[in-house]
Amino acid sequence: MCKSTSEFRRPVEGGDRRNKRDTLVVGGGISGMTAALEAAEFGKQVILVENPPSLGGRVSQLYRYFPKLCHSTCGMEINLKRMRQQSNLNLLTMTEVTDVQGDAGNYSVTLKTHPRYVNENCTNCGDCADVVEAEFDDEYNYGMSKRKGAYTANEMAHPQRYVLDPAIIGTDDATKA
Ligand code: SF4
């Protein structure tokens, strides 16, 4: 269910245009995280858009990853530490691109943010998952296990906030959560 739509618009300005553009990175897997961090650490204002509730993508689901065959948890932790220290980076999870207008360097992008049903006061305590009864196939584990209707993808999920499955909204489970 989609509840809100937001728009990211950054027309080209005069002067030194290269340093005044915002940078939009679509996709919050480890490559998108790294691209967003590199740009933010260089001084760009960066918006990182990710469709799932948390960052990491496919690499976060793997035991090790190319090219150095590091553990994915190690690569994720390094990037998440950099991200927590980075004020130039604005992260939008549960968000998808629905439209792009314009050309390179002068464009507008329409984003649609899906509701998490949990606000920023979440402490990641997990109590909601304990009381919710509904279970669903766990996407993070390729459907080989179940997760609750109130869940977080994994122990390293960032942002550290639970999400309610839209399927429990309007049910007793949502009230208990
Ligand atoms: S939403 Fe769930 S995990 Fe977050 S503070 Fe509330 S009970 Fe705890």
Short description:
With 177 residues, the chain is α+β, with helices and mostly antiparallel strands. The protein contains four helices and twelve strands. The strands form five sheets. The protein has a three-stranded antiparallel β-sheet with strand order 1-8-7, with no helix packed on it. A three-stranded parallel β-sheet has the order 2-3-6, with helices on one face. The protein has a two-stranded antiparallel sheet with strand order 4-5.
Explained architecture:
It is a single chain. The protein is 20% helix and 28% strand. The chain has four helices and twelve strands; from the N terminus they run ββαβββαβββαββββα. Strands 1-8-7 form a three-stranded antiparallel sheet, with no helix packed on it. Strands 2-3-6 form a three-stranded parallel sheet, covered by helices on one side. A hairpin with a 4-residue loop joins β4 and β5 (70-71). α1 (30-41) runs parallel beside α2. The structure holds iron/sulfur cluster (SF4).
CATH superfamily of the largest domain: FAD/NAD(P)-binding domain
Number of helices: 4
- Ranges where pLDDT stays below 50 over 5 or more residues in a row are 1-19
How many strands in all? 12
The gross shape turns out to be globular
State the strand order across the main sheet. Answer: 1-8-7
Radius of gyration: 18 Å
Tell me the quaternary state.
Answer: single chain
**What is the succession of H and E elements?**
EEHEEEHEEEHEEEEH
Q: What is the third-level CATH name, the topology of the largest domain?
A: FAD/NAD(P)-binding domain
Secondary-structure-based class equals alpha+beta
**Separation, N- and C-terminal Cα atoms:** 18 Å
How many structural domains?
A: 2
- pLDDT averaged over residues: 89
Give the % helix: 10-25%
Largest sheet: 3 strands, antiparallel
CATH class call of the largest domain: Alpha Beta
CATH architecture annotation name of the largest domain: 3-Layer(bba) Sandwich
Q: What is bound: which ligands?
A: iron/sulfur cluster
